[in-house]
Amino acid sequence: MNGLPLSSDVLRGHLESIILTLISEKDRYGYEIVNEIKKRTAGDFVMKEATLYAMVQRLEKKEVITSYIGDKSHGKKRRYYKITLLGKAYLKEKKAEWLELKDIMALFLEANHETNR
Amino acid sequence: MKRIDKFVRRLYKHQPEDHESMEALKQMLYEKVDDLMREEDLSEEDAINRTIEEFGDEKDYELPALEKEKRRHRRAKTLRHYKNDLLFSALATLLIASIVFIANYALLDQFFPWVALIITLGVLFWPLSILYKFLNKKGDHS
C-alpha cells in the first residue's frame, strides 16, 4: 500500500468488520488491536484509541463481543475482547456485504478506468 | 496514572455519573501506557504523554453517548437562555405597558386607551419574538 495514511473517515463503515475479524482470530485487548492494525497495514491505517474505544463500546452494546479481565504474560491485567456467537454470524454477514460492495465498486471504478485509457 | 484519570474525567465532564464507561476507557489507556513502557522502554511520564497525545480528538472518538450528552447539554443551555430572555422581556413589557397606561391616565386630562394599547402591542412583539425562537428551538430535536 502506498500514499498517505488513511483516516478513520474513509474506513468508517468497515471499522466494525476490521475489529471483529481481529477479535475472531483470538481474544485481544485494546492496544493490541490498534497495534495489529498498524502492523498489518504497514502503518497506512492507524486507528486512534478514541475510535477503537467508541467501536468496542458499540459492539458490546450490540452483544457481538464481550470483555473480560485477563492476565498478560509479564504485564498488568488487560481487558480482553472476545467474539460471541452472534458476533460470528454478524461478521459473516459483514463479509458477504463487503464482497458485494467490492463487486459493485469494481464494476464502476474499473469500467471507468478502462474508458479513460 | 493520575494524569490519565484526569484526562478521562475531562472527556466525561458532561457525563460524570457514567463510572462504568470511564473505568473501561481508563483501563484501555493504562494498558497502552504499560505496553509502551515494556515494549518501547519509555518512562512512565513519556508513555502517558504519548498515550494522551495519540488518543485522538472529537472527530475520532465520536463516543455516541458522550456526543449525544454534549448536544443535550448545549441544547438545555440555549433553552435556559431563551427562558431567561423571555422572562426578562415579559416583565419589561409589563412594566412599560403599566407606565404608559399610568402616565396616560394620570398626566393627561383625557384618557386615550387606543394610543396606550398600540404602544403596548408594539412592545409586546419583543417577548413574542423570543417566545417564537424558544418554541422553535424546543421543537427542534435534531
Keywords:
heterodimer, A: 117 residues, alpha+beta, Arc Repressor Mutant, subunit A, three-stranded antiparallel sheet, 5 helices, 3 strands, globular, B: 142 residues, mainly alpha, 6 helices, rod-shaped
Question: Which structural class should the secondary elements of chain A be placed in?
Answer: alpha+beta
Query: Which architecture name of chain A does CATH use?
Result: Orthogonal Bundle
Please give the most extensive interface between any two protein chains, plus how many residues each contributes. A-B, 22 and 24 residues
Tell me the name of the CATH class of chain A. Answer: Mainly Alpha
Number of discrete helical segments of chain B: 6
N→C terminal distance of chain A = 23 Å
How does this model look, in words?
The complex is a heterodimer of chains A (117) and B (142). With 117 residues, chain A is an alpha+beta fold. Helices cover 61% and strands 14% of the residues of chain A. Chain A has 5 helices and 3 strands; from the N terminus they run ααβααββα. Chain A is globular and about 55 Å long. In chain A, 26% of the residues are buried. Chain B has helices at 2-11, 19-39, 44-54, 58-61, 64-107, 113-139. Chain B is built from 6 helices and no strands. The model of chain B has no long low-confidence stretch (mean pLDDT 84). The two termini of chain B are 38 Å apart. In chain B, α1 packs across α2, α2 (19-39) packs across α3 (44-54) and α5 runs antiparallel to α6 (113-139). Classes of the chains: A alpha+beta (117), B mainly alpha (142). Chains A and B meet through α3 and α4 of A and α2 and α4 of B.
